[in-house]
Fold each of these.
Amino acid sequence: MSVVAYAPASTANVSVGFDVLGAALAPLDGTLLGDRVFVGETEGDFNLVNTGPFAHKLPDDFTQNIVYDCYVAYGKALAKKGLRLKPLVMTLEKNLPVGSGLGSSATSIVAAFVALNAFHDEAMSEHELTLLMGELEGQISGSVHYDNVAPCHLGGMQLVLDEAGVVSQSLPVFDDWYWVVCYPGIAVSTSAARAILPAQYRRQDCLAYGRRLAGFVHASHTGQEKVAAAMLKDVIAEPYRAQLIPGFNEVREHAATMGALATGISGSGPTVFCVMKDLHQAEKLKTWLAEHFIQNQDGFCHICKLDAQGARVTGTEL
């Protein structure tokens, strides 16, 4: 028996929802913008192999890989249920760059747990898996944040609650929005992006944050597209993180001239996203970003819709 799971990239914060809002991404051209994990039977010892375009960015020692940590954590979770890990080997196909602002660690974690769970006949519930995913994500970022793992796992746009036994809930989305997502090819570490934020915020910024987040959630539920788009403004992170991303202000200005409803930083950056209504204009913006924002051969740009499926088993072979 063998199984392969895919987990999509995600954009966290979505400008208006720092640490509480995230959305899974699906390129229109069918590109798998996310990581895949293979789990297969073995008669020998556990082994983990890395493949994919960004495998060279991962540690040579597989015990230092977050996917190995997922394997260990899943085994402990099974033991609490009186179950045992089957003898297995794993392969991580690393398709997302590290430090891209697209939930790179979350895609590896989510794909690993979904594959391990499928291999063990769905021994864990979806809720139990999400909690494990958040725990492992917290090992990397220093504290538990579900704004990448929740949409990556469950799909769509997720509002993180983490109260009353509920990790997150889906928000209605505007199906005719195109999300132009561009990674310039440079890395911004999550820790560096967090370190640049102030320790305290002014009352007026806190009020603006709460008002806009509430407004976006309400507008999403009531189908008020114009209001929802107007709420996509960031007073918490973007004013400070923009300086870490060369050309960000130019992207915002140019996207606005092309009709973008909103432009923001994906997660902690350096990837940016622009929300467009017109596909032709989205394609023109993608071409402009490729010429003016991408800095090296590692960069890429995709026109996406939101991925409603989230993580899923895609087959038995990579």
Amino acid sequence: MPQLTPFFFVNQVTFNFLFLTIIIYMFTKYILPRFVRLFKSRLHINNL
């Protein structure tokens, strides 16, 4: 059914956009601050 092809692509685009925003939010909120804290603590320990 070729008339459903645009809806399929729109569905893919919206799903991927939602997925990307969730991934970016998780990285900026939880994962990256943990790495920054880890590197800061390593720097602090090395300076002692």
